[in-house]
Amino acid sequence: MILDQGERATPIKLVCLDLAGTTIGDIAMVERAFAEAIATQGIVPGTGAYARAMVHVHRSRGCPTVEVFRGIFPDNEAQAQAANLTFERSYEGAIGRSGLVPLPGTVEAFDRLRADDVKICLTTGFSRALLTRVLSSLSWSDRIDLALCPEEAGRGRPMPDMVLTAVLRLGVHDVGQVAVVGDSESAMLSGRRAGASVVAGVLTGVHSKERLLKGGATHILGAVADLPSVLFTGKPVESPVGASAP
C-alpha cells in the first residue's frame, strides 16, 4: 500500500532527483558522449575492449563520470581524465546543437512539489561546469532550490553524500522527510544509504526494474510525472511487495 501525504509519519519535505534519464531525455546524447570519449583513447567500436567498456558504462550509470572512466582505465589517471574531458566537450556540443528536453510531465511535477512546499534538489554525476551548462539550457532556476555535483558533496553516487548535503543546505530536519528519485541502481543505493523514506526508481532511463529493485527502490514509477501521486494522493502506483523505508 502507498500512503498519502496525510498518512505519512514524516511528510516529504525534500526531493532529490537525477538529471539524465530521470528528468531530461538525453540518454542517447550521454551514450554517444561516452562512446566518443572512449574512442579517443584507442578503444574503438567493433572490438572486444569497446564492448567491455560500454558494458561498464551501462552498469556504472549515475556514478560520477570521471569515476566511470577510472573504472575503464584503472592504471592510467591521465587517460581517465582525458576521456572525461572529451565526454564533457561532446555532451556540451550536443546541447548546443539540439538543446535539452524535459521528460513529459517533469515540469508539472516540479510545480506541484513546489506548490506543496517541497524543496527540489537536482543531483548528477557531471562536473559543476557541465551541470551549469545543463541548467542554463533548461532554464530551471526558478523551479529548483539546489543543484549538486559530486565535487561539491565529497563523493558521488552510489554514496549518500549528495543527498545528505542537500539535507544540510536546505535545512531539512529528518532524512525520513527525503525522497530520492533516479533511473539507475547507483541512485537507489545512494537514497537508501542516506536514509530516505522514499527511493523511487523511474523507468525512463538506463536501468531495468530489476536493477532498480536490486539497488533498493521502494517504489517503481513509469516516470517522474507519477511522483506527486505517490507523495500526495496515494494513487496506486507500483510499489514492490515487501519494500519498506530504511
Number of domains: 2
Structural class: alpha/beta
| Strand order, largest beta sheet | 3-2-1-4-5-6
The amount of helix comes to 40-55%
Q: How many whole angstroms does the radius of gyration measure?
A: 18 Å
**What is the H/E string?**
EHHHHHEHEHHEHEHEH
Protein architecture, described:
By secondary structure, the chain is α/β, with parallel strands linked by helices. The protein folds into two domains: 5-25 and 102-233, 3-Layer(aba) Sandwich (Rossmann fold), CATH 3.40.50.1000; 27-98. It has eleven helices and six strands. It has helices spanning 27-39, 48-59, 65-72, 77-98, 106-115, 128-138, 150-153, 161-169, 185-194, 209-215, 227-233; strands spanning 14-18, 119-123, 146-148, 178-182, 198-202, 219-221. Strands 3-2-1-4-5-6 form a six-stranded parallel sheet. β5, α10 (209-215) and β6 form a beta-alpha-beta unit. α4 (77-98) runs parallel beside α6. The longest helix has 22 residues, at 77-98. It is globular, with a radius of gyration of 18 Å. The two termini are 16 Å apart. Mean pLDDT is 90; it is low at 1-9 and 241-246.
